[in-house]
Amino acid sequence: MSATNFSLTPPLYVPDNPADEIIVGVAPLAGEDVVVKHYANSFRDTHLKQVLDARNIDTLVVVGAMSHMCVEAVSRAASDLGYGVTVVHDACATRALEFDGTVVPASYVHAVSMAALAFGYASVTSTAEWQSATPAIA
C-alpha cells in the first residue's frame, strides 16, 4: 500500500459496501473471529477487546487504511487500553485532504499521522524492519 493515490468512496461503515469486502488473500480461516466495525475505532461497539483478551494478546500490529482515520483511531484506543502497538507505516495508506481551501497531499497526511502516533502511542516501523524483527509464524 502507498500513502499516495488511495481513494475510498463514501459512504463508509454501511452494510453491503463493496469497499468493505474481505480480500481473498487475507480471508479468515475457519473458526477465526471476525469483528465487524462501524466506526474508525475498531474497539468502539465491537467485541475486539474481548477477542484479544481471551487469547491473552497484549501487543497489536496495525496496518490498513486510512492512516489519518482508522489506523490512528485504533492505535490510540489500543494504547489507551494498555496494549503495545506497532504500526507498519508502509503497509498503511491514506488520501489527500482539504482544509480551509488548502489541499494537503496524501504523503503529508500520512507522515503527520505516523509522526503523531510515534510521538506517544505506537512504535512505527517499516515492513522490512518488522519482518526482520519478528519470528516467522508457523
From TrEMBL:
Keywords: Hydrolase. It holds the Pfam family Isochorismatase. Gene3D superfamilies: Isochorismatase-like. It comes from the Bacteria. InterPro entries: Isochorismatase-like_dom, Isochorismatase-like_hydrls, Isochorismatase-like_sf. Residues 12-98 form the Isochorismatase-like domain. GO terms for molecular function: hydrolase activity. This is Isochorismatase-like domain-containing protein. It comes from Sphingobium xenophagum. The lineage of its organism: Bacteria, Pseudomonadati, Pseudomonadota, Alphaproteobacteria, Sphingomonadales.
